[in-house]
Amino acid sequence: MCDQTFMAITFGPCDNCSTTSPLMNIYIKNEPTNYCSFCVEMMACQGLLKGETLASLKNESESLKKKLEEERAKLHDVELHQVAEKIEVVSALSIKTRRVLKGHGNKVLCMDWCKDKRRLVSSSQDGKVIVWDGFTLNKEHAVPMPCTWVMACAYAPSGCAIACGGLDNKCSVYPLSLDKNENLAAKKKSVAMHTNYLSGCTFTNSDMQILTSSGDGTCALWDVESGQLLQSFHGHTADVLSLDLAPSETGNTFVSGGCDKKANVWDMRSGQNVQSFETHESDINCVKYYPSGDAFASASDDATCRLYDLRADREVAVYQKDSIIFGVSSLDFSLSGRLLFGGYNDYTINIWDVLKGNRVSMLFGHENRVSTVKVSPDGTSVCSASWDNTLRIWA
Amino acid sequence: NTGRMARDMTDKEILKMELDQLKKEVSTPRTPVGANCQETISFVEGLAADDPLIKGVPDDKNPYKGDKGGCIIT
């Protein structure tokens, strides 16, 4: 499909990039030169000041998007499931509900595991944040928030604090006290301030910094102690719904996804958007890094989950089925990266074989949408949170 | 990139921002899918044997099997 046709009198190495291709005879500063069509386009994009209109910018954007697709397609030599044909299928899984956590008065919107692999924190539309012991079902702390719809919560790496927020547009940190009688709400520390709802939050490698995503279209990195904004990340053109930090061994990046159907990978230090993917057909509700750090997956209202390889810079797998028509709200990987757990709006959790691309199992039990799915830090169990006011632990 | 939010920008400024981003991304270094997928598969095969959700955990080692959490009263 050509976006322009021209008489190609010359064929040979481009004067700019040396690729052998049909060449356009052009004049640069009155000197006759031969550029390939790609370099002509790149050059045309450079001086975009005079005569820029909405239409001309749109055209440049469209042709660059096509170029990007072509560049990515050149390396698309094979599909992931084809390379995975030779490996054995996953043996039958024996995963069942082991715990049902009841206590929230309304939809549970988010949960996070503590590094000790047994405690977890959950937040709800009822404005409460609860810290549970997953083994004993004990509710260790219950914090009332000043707003309803607490959409995000996270456990600090030390296990000594939690962060949460939602419609209050803030992310607040609560230190967890061993004294059960202590009023946790009194020790609250407001860290992040956005201009729209808080959709996601996570501590970085320490208790000292928090990364947030917001309905205001931005992500931000904050210093917990001072509440200072350390870095902000701009690039999404609609609400950001989710973010995930790269596994610590693979460096300082994180991925975000949102209502603009884009998943963006960011450099935390520079604030730059280093890679961007737009293959979903609807809002991206959740993004999660692959255990190796070389890929990430996204869950969308378009009823699919997709895997993107960061080194190949493209989507390498789509997890979908004709019979699955409801949006996916959340996803997580098993320890080895072989299984992908997706929480769906049809109340089920589908388990996919990441490599072969087929569904291996389904988990039934929730009586309303599944809002969050997270595998425990040691990979022994999965916790799901639901609009049916409960959480379930499966193992 | 002046660091402003999308909703405060005009359509033209948003298009310019997207265009600048695309220009950067066209030159991102990339490697073939086949080789990367092979590495991913090797990564998984190295860990799959110890993936508790795949191979299961013996009842006596599984904190969730057995009593659905109770208190021990002494």
Automatic annotation (TrEMBL), chain B:
InterPro entries: G-protein_gamma, G-protein_gamma-like_dom, GGL_sf
UniProt entry tagged with the keyword Lipoprotein: yes
Primary location recorded for the protein, binned into one broad class: membrane
GO molecular function, one term: G-protein beta-subunit binding
Residue intervals of the G protein gamma domain: 1-74
GO CC aspect terms: heterotrimeric G-protein complex
Entry's localization field: Cell membrane
Keyword Lipoprotein: yes
Keywords: Cell membrane, Lipoprotein, Membrane, Transducer
A Pfam entry, by short name: G-gamma
Family in the record: Belongs to the G protein gamma family.
SUBUNIT field: G proteins are composed of 3 units; alpha, beta and gamma.
Function text: Guanine nucleotide-binding proteins (G proteins) are involved as a modulator or transducer in various transmembrane signaling systems. The beta and gamma chains are required for the GTPase activity, for replacement of GDP by GTP, and for G protein-effector interaction.
Name this protein carries in UniProt: Guanine nucleotide-binding protein subunit gamma
Organism name: Myripristis murdjan
Gene for this chain: gngt2b
